[in-house]
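Appendix C: a fully annotated inverse folding record. The material below is reproduced so that readers can follow the format used throughout the book. The structure is listed first as tokens, followed by the designed sequence.
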């Protein structure tokens, strides 16, 4: 670190104004590496950030983004969400400005994961925004699988926050994307079902009915499945404002396919709309993985829909 600071004080009659910043950045990067190896992560993060600042002054944007990324990883070791997210955000912005879309996408995704798992519910909207940026970058690089991984996060987190319109749009996009793949087309019904449930949770029965008809036309294998029957029964129950109908539909589905915790919470929100109240936001499950089916231990703790 001392060598880096000394390099910044160099003066040359022959110009070379950026050379001192390049030399200093190299020293600060070396210091950051040694700090991290010694598990002095705070000092390592500071050293890498110092290096990033020097790289920017030397017009080396790529190296600056790399140093910001390393600083963010050091902050992550300390569970410093604020410092980590600030560095990842800087790195993503620089990569994006350079047209390095894959790198910008990866950094945006890392930023989103830090915000999602940081334990602060107030940061979840920022996590959704970061996942959205990653989706745009991945789509621009024609990487649909990676884009859909982020889109899934946007869908579940949006529903968790009660932003059912955003969740519906993301689930709809996931379902349509699956239809374009021979391997993924059998998963389309899962995403279409979630989209319809989000429409019902926001008390839009008309949209749910229209979506159900459209999805049946798009995916012939959807018709007649347990998911299709569940959507039909729930739509009819909501149209009749029948809490009992929602509970019955959920119970019949659960006999064949076990309801996972996330879906159970969404069904509770739908049931709430039949009580003449606004659909309550779902309890936060942002720091949980959303399984396809619940474990036995999870199933014992699920609320009683009846």
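Designed amino acids, in order:
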């Amino acid at each position: 670190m001392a060598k880096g600071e000394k390099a910044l004080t160099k003066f040359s009659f022959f110009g070379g104004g950026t050379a001192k910043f390049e030399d200093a950045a190299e020293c600060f990067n070396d210091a950051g590496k040694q700090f991290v190896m010694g598990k002095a992560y705070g000092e390592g993060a500071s050293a890498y950030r110092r290096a990033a600042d020097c790289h920017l002054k030397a017009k080396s944007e790529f190296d600056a983004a790399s140093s910001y990324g390393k600083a963010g990883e050091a902050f992550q070791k300390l569970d410093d969400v604020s410092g980590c997210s600030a560095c990842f955000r800087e790195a993503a912005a620089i990569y994006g400005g350079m047209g390095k879309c894959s790198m910008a996408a990866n950094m945006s995704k890392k930023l989103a994961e830090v915000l999602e798992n940081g334990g602060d519910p107030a940061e979840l909207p920022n996590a959704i925004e970061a996942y959205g940026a990653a989706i745009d970058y991945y789509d621009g690089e024609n990487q649909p699988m990676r884009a859909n991984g982020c889109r899934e996060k946007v869908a579940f987190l949006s529903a968790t926050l009660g932003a059912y319109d955003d969740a519906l749009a993301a689930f709809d996009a996931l379902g349509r994307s699956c239809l374009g793949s021979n391997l993924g087309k059998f998963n389309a019904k899962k995403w279409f079902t979630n989209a319809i449930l989000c429409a019902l949770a926001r008390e839009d029965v008309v949209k749910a009915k229209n979506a159900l008809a459209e999805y049946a036309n798009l995916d012939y294998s959807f018709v007649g499945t347990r998911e299709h029957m569940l959507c039909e029964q729930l739509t009819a129950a909501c149209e009749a404002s029948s809490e009992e109908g929602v509970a019955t539909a959920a119970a019949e589905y659960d006999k064949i396919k076990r309801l996972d915790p996330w879906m159970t919470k969404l069904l509770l929100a739908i049931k709430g709309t039949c009580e003449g109240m606004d659909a309550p936001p779902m309890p936060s499950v942002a720091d949980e993985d959303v399984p396809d089916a619940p474990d036995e231990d999870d199933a014992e703790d699920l609320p009683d829909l009846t």
